[in-house]
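STRUCTURE:
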C-alpha cells in the first residue's frame, strides 16, 4: 500500500466484548477467568506458566472433545472480582496496582507460586468477597511484578 493522499474511514473495534479460539480439550464455564496460551488459544485459568489473563468468559463452551480452534468463546476485558487465595498468597489492599497471579479459573494469588503461575491481571481493589482484577492483555503481559 502507498501512503494516504486523502482521508480514510479507518475501522475501529469498539467495546470490551471479544471472541477467541478455544484450546483443544477445554471446558470453559460462564464467568471463568480466561487466559491466552502460547499458541494464541484461550484456556480457563489454571496454575501454569506461559499464559496471560484476558478476561471473563461470557458463556459456557465445551471443547472437551475438540481440537484447538474448533470452537470460540465470547469474553470481556475489564475489571472483575475473583476469589482471593489464602495464607502467604492472600492479596491485601497493600497489593493494589500489583500483578495478580492465576491459581485456577476463579482464584488469584499474590505470588507466582515459585514460578508456577502466570499473570492474570492487575489488582484493582480488594474487599471481603475477593479481589477485583483489571484484565487488559497487553498491559498485563508487560506489567511489573
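SEQUENCE:
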Amino acid at each position: 500500500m502507498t501512503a494516504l493522499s486523502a482521508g480514510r474511514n479507518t475501522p475501529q473495534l469498539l467495546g470490551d466484548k471479544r471472541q477467541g479460539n478455544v484450546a483443544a480439550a477445554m471446558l470453559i464455564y460462564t464467568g471463568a477467568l480466561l487466559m491466552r496460551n502460547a499458541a494464541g488459544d484461550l484456556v480457563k485459568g489454571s496454575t501454569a506458566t506461559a499464559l496471560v489473563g484476558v478476561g471473563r468468559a461470557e458463556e459456557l463452551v465445551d471443547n472437551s472433545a475438540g481440537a484447538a480452534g474448533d470452537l470460540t468463546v465470547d469474553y470481556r476485558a475489564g475489571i472483575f472480582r475473583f476469589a482471593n487465595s489464602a495464607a502467604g498468597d492472600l492479596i491485601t489492599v497493600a497489593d493494589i496496582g500489583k500483578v495478580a497471579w492465576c491459581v485456577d479459573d476463579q482464584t488469584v494469588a499474590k505470588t507466582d507460586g515459585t514460578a508456577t503461575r502466570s499473570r492474570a491481571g492487575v489488582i484493582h481493589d480488594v474487599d471481603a468477597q475477593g479481589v477485583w482484577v483489571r484484565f487488559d492483555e497487553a498491559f498485563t503481559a508487560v506489567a511489573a511484578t
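REMARK: The CA atoms of residues 35 and 53 lie 4 Å apart.
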